[in-house]
Each structure stands twice: as structure tokens, then as C-alpha cells.
Amino acid sequence: MTPEFVIQIGQEALLLTVMLAAPILLSALAIGLFIGVFQAATQIQEMTLSFIPKLGAVVITLMLAGPWMIRILMEFTVRLIESIPSYLG
Fold first, then answer.
1. Is the entire prediction scored with pTM above 0.85?
2. I need a surface site. Which of 2, 5, 6, 76 has the fewest CB within 10 A?
């Protein structure tokens, strides 16, 4: 196993992490931005106001994108486990 090979696996794992985290983070960001604009327009400065909508957005995103996320993660894991013999030989 060469250092370049280990770096390639690490890069794939990091890319996978970004791909899996992006939908959740983007939905929370969009809701947070919307709530922030609403708070600025109405001058309501309650810090906890955005928590429940963000939590709801994250839950909905996980329900919608969850099967895709699990499939992608399983494909990566299976590919990694199946290629263990080639790593050792």
C-alpha cells in the first residue's frame, strides 16, 4: 500500500463526507437566512426563534435525502471492504 493510495482513499472519504453533509447544512443555512431576514424585518431579536425551524428542516432533509445518503455510504464502504485483498497484496 503506497502513500499515494492512502491519500486517494482519504480524498474519497473527505469528498463523501462533504457530499453527505451538504444537503443538511444547506437546508439549515437557507432556513437560518430566511429566519434572520424575518427577524431583521420585524425587529424580533429572539435567539431561539430559528432553532425549531432549523431542526425541522434538518429532519425533513434527512427523511428525503436519507436513502440516497445511506446508498452512497454503503457503496463506498462495500467498495472499500471488497478491495482489501488488493490493498494487502
1. no
2. 2
